[in-house]
Design a protein that fits this description.
This protein is of the alpha/beta class. It contains nine helices and seven strands, in the order βαααααβαβαβαβββα. A seven-stranded mixed beta sheet has the order 3-2-1-4-5-6-7. The chain is globular, with a radius of gyration of 18 Å. The model has no long low-confidence stretch (mean pLDDT 96). The structure holds xylulose-1,5-bisphosphate and magnesium ion.
Length: 256
């Protein structure tokens, strides 16, 4: 095999992929921030599912105002007000992570440790705010885990969030790798669109809010990354010999 084609890096999404953070993490943090701002808004589980079509917390708040609270759009300081509300939301999310409220999904820690042993680079490409990424990694894998990732692309580092490919382009640039040397792991249609538009082979592990989305173009769709003791369920893609994702399977997908 040409070394240029060898799998060099795995690019992980965060929300829904590393951990199921939306329903009982981000949603609760938004609601806590609304309360702190004396707003009578409550994003219940169904409404939040609808709002998730918009990636990015600040963008999601603006979308909610446009659809459900148009009077609020008349604020003269709207942009700053949303930014302040979102900052408060981030603090609440960090507290939830510090309390250890959300575990990593099956197979995530195992695969990260294995990729490190195999000297395959780790990167993150996410829409979420950087503080959320570090809080999650710290609470689940320990303080030093942040340093295991060669590149972390997060939040507003690029102007256009997923489904635009910008965050994946930015991470590939930082890694100095081409898309064909890497594979992305995502959980959502917006994330898949973003990775595919950057030409990345993409594995989907479905999450709470995303299991009925359209994952055409993914190398495979799985319930999760699986463990030898707790195999994944395969939803789409070519039949696999094992019930857990390891670096060999990822290399094969990257080199299809
Ligand atoms: C994640 C998101 C984020 C989080 C909230 O999408 O859409 O907006 O819900 O994060 P993906 P912030 O998993 O595709 O990256 O509030 O920090 O923006
Ligand atoms: Mg996601």
């Amino acid at each position: 095999m040409n070394t240029n084609n060898k799998l060099q890096a795995v690019l992980f999404d965060v929300d829904g992929t590393l951990a199921d953070t939306e329903q009982d993490g981000h949603r609760l943090a938004f609601n806590a921030a609304f309360k702190q701002f004396d707003l009578d808004w409550d994003w219940d589980i169904d409404l939040y599912g609808e709002l998730l079509q918009i990636t990015g917390g600040k963008e999601r708040i603006r979308f909610y105002l446009e659809k459900y609270r148009p009077a609020e759009l008349n604020r003269t300081d709207l942009k700053e007000w949303i930014a302040g509300l979102h900052k408060t939301k981030t603090k609440h999310f960090e507290s939830l992570m510090e309390a250890g409220s959300i575990p990593l999904r099956p197979g995530v820690a195992r695969l990260i440790h294995e990729l490190r042993r195999e000297k395959i680079k780790l990167a993150i490409a996410t829409t979420t705010t950087m503080e959320n990424v570090t809080a999650l990694l710290r609470s689940t894998l320990g303080e030093e885990a942040i340093g295991w990732f060669d590149v972390i692309g997060a939040g507003d580092i690029v102007p256009l969030k997923k489904p635009a490919p910008d965050i994946y382009h930015w991470v590939l640039d930082q890694l100095k790798l081409t898309a064909s040397q890497c594979i992305a792991v995502e959980d959502s249609e917006n994330g898949l669109k973003s990775a595919l538009a950057a030409n990345l082979p993409t594995l989907i592990t479905v999450s709470g809010y995303t299991r009925s989305q359209d994952f055409s173009g993914a190398v495979a769709v799985l319930s999760d990354l699986g463990e030898p003791s707790q195999p994944f369920t395969q939803i789409a893609g070519p039949a696999l010999e094992k019930g857990w994702v390891d670096h060999t399977i990822l290399s094969n997908w990257a080199n299809r």
